[in-house]
Specification:
The protein has helices at about 10-20, 25-30, 65-75, 110-120, 140-160, 170-175, and strands spanning about 40-45, 60-65, 80-85, 95-105, 125-135, 180-185, 190-200. With about 200 residues, the chain is of the alpha/beta class. The site of S-adenosylmethionine (SAM) has 15 residues, from strand 2.
Length: about 200
């Protein structure tokens, strides 16, 4: 399996902190609650560094496509009760999760891949389960628009990202049987953290 993040994995977290400070980490943790009683599925968690402080309360599964990112996450989250897996999420029989976290990962996928992933996830989420989604939305200010273009080009070049645009997440989620529960904006709404539930 190709490791698209091999080059940038060691610098990824530092880079995001240099450019965005603490805002992305805040978005990834703002809806975290009662972790001890939940089984969490993390898809594309990267190096896991931003979950380090809460790791002792984390139970569930951690899936990564990049072996470099996965190895970093295993080290950063060694006090968690997470099971780490390389590759595309594979469902185990009877395994259900209370929350699925997609943090800055859906924007790396095509619309078709997002739809496929959302449908897969539906089957492993409890009826009261939540999808905790965080990502870049349309940039708002001129500076953000510029930075957005630079980021898209950077990730296409160094991490083989396919997209040249930002997905219409909310349209895709609604079309695929999800309903919006709660949201919070960061960086003037360029980044949003949202909770969604399945409706069918
Ligand atoms: C932009 S990085 C974000 C990493 C981390 N979530 C964060 O916020 O720092 C996207 C990550 O998602 C992973 N990824 C992309 N598609 C994936 C998939 N289908 N399954 C698991 N991981 C995936 C990539 O390997 C990469 O580590």
């Amino acid at each position: 399996m190709k490791d698209s993040y091999q080059l940038i994995a060691p610098y990824y977290n530092l880079l995001t902190k240099l450019v965005f400070g603490k805002h992305l980490r805040e978005a990834k943790t703002c809806f975290i609650s009662s972790l001890k009683s939940k089984k969490i599925l993390i898809i594309g968690g990267g190096d896991g560094l931003d979950y380090q402080e809460i790791q002792s309360d984390l139970t569930g599964e951690y899936w990564e496509l990049s072996s470099s990112m996965l190895e970093l996450a295993k080290g950063n989250l060694q006090k968690s009760e997470l099971h780490f897996y390389l590759g595309d999420f594979q469902r185990k029989e009877d395994m259900l999760f209370d929350e699925v976290w997609f943090h800055f990962v859906l924007d790396t996928m095509s619309d078709e891949e997002i739809e496929g992933m959302l449908n897969e996830i539906k089957a492993v989420l409890t009826d009261k389960g939540r999808l905790y989604f965080v990502d870049f939305f349309q940039p708002v200010t001129t500076k953000q628009k510029l930075l957005n273009q630079v980021m898209i080009k950077f990730f296409r070049l160094f991490a083989s990202h396919k997209r040249e645009d930002i997905p219409d997440y909310e349209i895709i989620l609604k079309k695929n049987g999800w309903t919006f529960i709660e949201g919070k904006g960061f960086l003037k709404g360029w980044v949003k953290a949202q909770l969604w539930a399945k409706i069918d």
